[in-house]
Every structure is written in C-alpha cells, then in structure tokens.
Amino acid sequence: MPDEFTKATYAPQGLLCVQREALGVEFLLFASDRRTVIDDGVAIVTISGPLMHHANPIFDSYDAICERIRCALESDDVGAVALKIHSPGGDASGVTEAHRKILEMRAESDKPVCSFVDELAASAACYIAAACSEVWLPPAGEIGSIGAIAELEDRTVANEKAGILKEYIKTGARKDDSRPDRPLTDDVRAAVQKRIDHVGDLFIEDVAKARKLSVETVRGFEAGVFSGQEAVDVGLADGVSSWRKFLALVKKSRASVRVSAEESASPEANMDLLSLVKARETAMAGVLAAKTEAERKAAMVTFEAAATALAQASAETPRPLTTLAALEAAEKKGGDDDDDDDDDDEEEDEEKKAKAEEERKAEEKRTEERKTKKAELRAKMKKAKTEEQKAKYRAAIKKMDDEEKKAQAAVSASQEIELLRAQVEALAESNAKTQAQSRTKEVHSMLLAASREGKLTPAMIPEMREVGLDNPERLGKILAALPKQNAEMLPPDEAPDGISTHVRSEAGVIDLKTPQNDDQKRILASMSVGLSTAEKAQLEAAMKTASDNARNRAANGGIPRA
Fold it and tell me: Could you give the C-alpha distances from 56 to 52, 65, 142, in angstroms and in order?
C-alpha cells in the first residue's frame, strides 16, 4: 500500500528557530514519518519537516515528538531509542521545553536515546538532537543554525501606492509591533531584537551544556551550519556513519547499557581514579624537575608508587562500553585481535625502527647542514673588513649554537619522557600478570573448598574454573548457592580396590556398584546433580546393579543368586 502524503507550504509568523531557507517552501510530508517503528528492540522515532509547538494536523510538533519518545522509553519491547531527524527547525515557542523534557526522560530511564541527522538538523531540530546522549550524521549531513530569527515586513509604501489605508485600534503602544501595515521603526526593531536575543541565549546555553562546550564556543558558531566530520570537530556531533551502521551500533548499545548499569564504576571510584591520575602526573613532574641524582631517585620511587596504584585501581574498576563511538572502535578492532597480537607487535616494532632510522638520518643531514653553514659564516667573518660585519657574523654563529643546545635539550627531555613511559608500561604489565596469578590461585582455592564440601563433581570443575577466571565474585555466588551433595569421589589410590568407583560420604565409604542401604542410595542419587551424560549413565548403571542384587538376595533368603 503506498504511503499517504501531504503537500504543505511553510509560512509561519513570529519568533522562529528555523533555517531561513525553509520559509515559504512547499514540503512533502509522509504519514509514516509520525509512526514509531521498533527494529530489533530499537524504537525509531522519525522527525521530519518543519516543527510546531503543539499538535498539528499537517506538521510535526514538539508535543508529539516528546510523547513518541516517552512511549518508546516506557515500552518493555524497547531497549534503546534512535531519533532519525530531517528538519529545518520550526517554532521558537516550545522547543526549549522539549529539549529539557527529553533530558528529563533520559535521566529517568536507563535506555539510551541517540539521534541520527538524516541529512539536516537545523535550528530547533539541532536543539532536539542536542538533548540526546549522542549525535551522529552521514558525511554530507548538516547540523547547526543555532539561534532564533523573526521576519519583519513593512508594506506601508506598497499600501500607499495601492491606495490602501489600514489603522489599528489597540491597547498599548506595542500592540501592533511587527505588523506589516505599520511603519517599521527603530523602536520596533529593538523590541523584536530583545526577544530574539533572549530566545537565542536560551538556545545557545542549553546546547553548550548538553554538548559539553563553552557558551562562547557555541556563540562563536554565529548560527553557522556544519557538515559531516566538520560537525564532529566543532563538537556538535559524535561520529560520522551511514544510517544502517548507526542503527547497528545502537542495537549493540542496548546490552552495553545494561552491563554498565550493573557493573559500571561508582562516582566515588571514578573520583579515586582521577585523583590517582593527578598523583601520577605530579610525580612525573617531580622526576623531570629533579636537579640532583638523589632528588631524581626519590622522585622515581614516588612516581613508581603512584603508577602502580593507578594501574591496580584501573584493573579493578569496570570500564564497560557505553558510547556508540566506543562500540564502533571495538567493532573495528575485530574479534580476532588476540590471534594477531604478535604479528601486530612485530609490525609496530618494524615501523618504530624505520621511523627512528628516518629521524636519525634527518638529524645527521641537519647536523651537516649546520656545520656547513657555520663554516661559511666563519669564512665570511675572516674576510670581513669592518668590525661591524664581524660582529654580525659572530651573532649569527652564536644564534646557531644556541639553537643546537635547545634542540639537544629537547631530545634529552623527549628521551626521558619515553623512558618514563616505558617504565609505566612495564609496571602495568607486571601488575596485570600478578593480578592474573592471584586470581588463578583464588579460583583454585574456591574450587578445592567446594569440592571438599561435596558441592562439585569432576564434570563441573572445568566450567566453574572458566567462570571464576572471568569473574571470581560471580563464581563465589554460584558456589554459595549450590547444595552440598554430602559425598565426594575417592581418588584411585584411596579406593579399596584401587579403582575410582568409591565415594566418601556421611554414610561411610560406598562402592558405586553395591550400595548397601537406602541412605547410601540417596547419597549416590544426590551426586547426579551436575554430572555429564556419560557419568550419569555410569551412576544409573551402578544403581541398577545394586537394585538387582538386592532383589536377588531377597528372593534367595539373603543369598545372592549366581
């Protein structure tokens, strides 16, 4: 069935947050643009055409947009919301409230709300997009036009030529300000400009706050429009991609946000990390400022302690992916990076060696050029006839010597910083290995204790080990929840027949093949929890043999039948 559409000319009055080029333009508006579509858990809210304040039968409105977003966030079928925007803007009235309402709804929900500029998000549409957690656009997409505008018209000359005379009966001198049939005076212009400035200031301040930019920066845009990567560079957008790729990233962000809600670092943990970073930077500054060897050694001890503390805290603090840019970076990195790490390291080493060799040759060339230049200056100085000329050449030679000393000092400082960076990386790697070894020991102890309590069978241990190495805390919760089976397998060297078909339990040592009473049968049955299919079949066979033996003894007066 073809999509229903309407043609309408946009000719608004009053204060606007719209691109000037949209005024008087005929728009083709599709009915489907106001329907929310759910695609694999992502609610797609389309915003297109000029925007009005309240519900409108022709154009979209801020009230309707906020209602569509609210319904999407409250739906159990939705894990994220994506605004797909193609709009020149619209009314100034209501857009500030809509921006702040979207921020409120985002704060009350753990579902991400992202926006994609489907070619144009100008003025009020940019205001709406800025309320989202992230803004993306295609390479040719445009965003901006931050500010307000009003169109004033003076028809008095045309009316006079046409013999038309209009007069307004009013209350108050300003009642007919901006009416086209009265002269456009400086007082009217100043009054309208004051209203424009007020709306524009609200717009600029809200966008600056939402996009984490300074008010001066946003005001400095001068209501300009930015496209593609340029919009990212100035801070109005977070990334450049196609709609399909953007939607795929939003779908991935659903799980990412759920993880971050449960496992992300607390504000206190983030503050601790920040203080540790500052401590490390202060310690590094101390190393660089040290004047004596003793001061340098003392500063290095402080620096190593600060770097170690930061590395440990960073390893212990969860850092889930919460932004589309981070997801895109992870996606580019690919799933097979672990297999290619060694090759990548070798390639990186080769690149570093090649770069170092190029820099060495370039430095040798510069050194030779300086020597040649100084030799020429000295030769000219010897030939100089006046003292003034000689002084000029001496000054030039001294300037070159000073520049060489500065260059050597810069190289020395760069080498020192590289050395410190290498030490930090080595400390971080050492800490990571230590933590991995500690985690392995912790998991081994947990599994050993659980096995002794009869909570684990041999078949369960490999899987539980993987869980523990990934998350020891989770393993602890799982082990705490497992029931005690009150029985454990005997190793072959402790079994009476030297074969591991015996278990130790509260009822003594039991042979899997010949349990003696109901208590032993109950204990053996409880051991089936968590067994593999093969182990369970072996246990069931042993229980069947025991049951058959018991029936044989009963039928023969307690004497087993051959």
Answer: 7, 12, 26
CB 370 within 8 A of CB 404: yes
Identify the H or E element spanning 487. strand 487-489
* Class level of CATH domain 5-150+214-247: alpha beta
Q: How far apart are CA 126 and CA 283, in angstroms?
A: 44
Contact 132, 100 (CB under 8 A): no
Total length of the chain: 562
Please choose, from the candidates 498, 522, 501, the residue with its C-alpha nearest in 3D space to the C-alpha of residue 511.
501
Q: Among 98, 115, 377, which Cα is nearest to 231's? A: 115
CA quadruple 545, 546, 548, 549: dihedral sign: positive
Strand partners, 225: 144
Q: Are 136 and 165 in contact (CB under 8 A)?
A: no
The domain spans of the chain are 5-150+214-247, 266-317, 337-376, 384-484, 487-555
The alpha carbon of 445 is separated from its chain's Cα centroid by a whole number of angstroms, namely 36
Give average pLDDT by consecutive 10-residue segment, the chain, 562 residues: 65 84 78 78 92 86 93 89 94 95 91 94 96 94 94 84 83 78 84 92 95 93 94 94 92 57 44 61 69 75 71 50 57 55 62 76 80 82 82 83 72 66 72 79 80 64 75 78 56 49 56 56 50 55 57 52 40
Structure tokens at 424: 């930090």
- Report in angstroms the alpha-carbon separations of 44 from 84, 110, 247: 7, 17, 9
Provide Rg for the chain, Cα atoms.
38
Measured distance CA(532)–CA(457) in Å, rounded: 9
The tokens for 497 are 């027949």
